[in-house]
Write a sequence for this structure.
């Protein structure tokens, strides 16, 4: 697990809502990747001054020849035969180029099971590190924690990530756990159990997970006490499972998901939106 410190976001107005997207399960390099939908979400994050994002892993399909999952019929037709000999580099460069327009709005990127398997079997464990360095974003490993601190500053015209906010700003902080996830469940209830488990194990405010290719969420409340232990306090937490960009069923292609009769993937990213001055937050799944 990576503990990666604080991210400061300055924003101008008490009325502002700020959105933190979770981009995961892009599976770039697969023929069934919904590249149009991915590019549309990236454009939304780029153009909306109130949007920021975290990366949730499985950015590319990373299944080389020799892997039992390899199927030449499911590869993006734009891939060349020569690309298969250096698949990690080719796909990671594609990921970098797609995410470059929003790199200045990123709070960190973790990697998923596709990256992890490729790293181990191909002895290329540097690829995720390289991607984070190229984009200039924090590396969250497979599971990372950070604090996002919203600092109201009426002197700024639009929200922005800063290294240190003004000392006299009003601040609201949330602890965020971002991880790719793991589950072989095929039912909605089974899929959400992984994020509920994380919410039970780790003391955070917001939780982001991917992997199961289905949008879902869970809100929970905990009872605690103030510092003087004279007043009971309720704390709410929110866990979000983000959607994927890999279609389970695609015309003219027999995908792995089709062979397993998986449920159709819910496409697109989920997010948590926050109104810091009122300590209100909610999610879109």
């Amino acid at each position: 697990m990576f503990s990666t410190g604080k991210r400061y976001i300055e924003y101008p107005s008490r009325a502002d809502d700020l959105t933190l997207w979770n981009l995961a399960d892009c599976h770039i390099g697969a023929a069934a990747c919904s590249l149009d939908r991915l590019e549309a979400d990236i454009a939304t994050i780029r153009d909306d001054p109130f949007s920021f994002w975290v990366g949730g892993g499985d950015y590319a399909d990373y299944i080389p020849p020799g892997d039992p999952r390899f199927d030449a019929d499911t590869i993006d037709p734009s891939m060349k035969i020569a690309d298969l000999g250096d698949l990690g580099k080719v796909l990671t460069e594609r990921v970098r180029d797609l995410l470059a327009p929003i790199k200045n709005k990123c709070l960190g990127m973790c990697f998923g099971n596709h990256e992890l398997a490729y790293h181990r079997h191909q002895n290329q464990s540097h690829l995720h590190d390289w991607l984070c360095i190229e984009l200039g974003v924090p590396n969250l490993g497979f599971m990372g924690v950070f604090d996002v601190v919203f600092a109201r500053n009426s002197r700024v015209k639009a929200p922005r990530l800063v290294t240190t906010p003004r000392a006299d700003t009003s601040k609201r902080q949330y602890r965020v756990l971002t991880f790719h996830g793991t589950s072989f469940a095929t039912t909605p209830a089974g899929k959400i159990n992984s994020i509920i488990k994380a919410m039970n194990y780790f003391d955070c405010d917001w939780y982001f997970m991917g992997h199961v290719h289905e949008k879902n969420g869970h809100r929970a409340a905990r009872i605690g006490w103030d510092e003087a232990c004279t007043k009971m306090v309720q704390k709410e937490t929110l866990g979000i499972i983000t959607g994927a960009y890999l279609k389970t069923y695609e015309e003219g292609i027999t995908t792995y998901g089709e062979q397993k009769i998986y449920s159709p993937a819910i496409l697109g990213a989920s997010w948590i939106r926050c109104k810091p001055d009122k300590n209100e937050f909610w999610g879109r799944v």
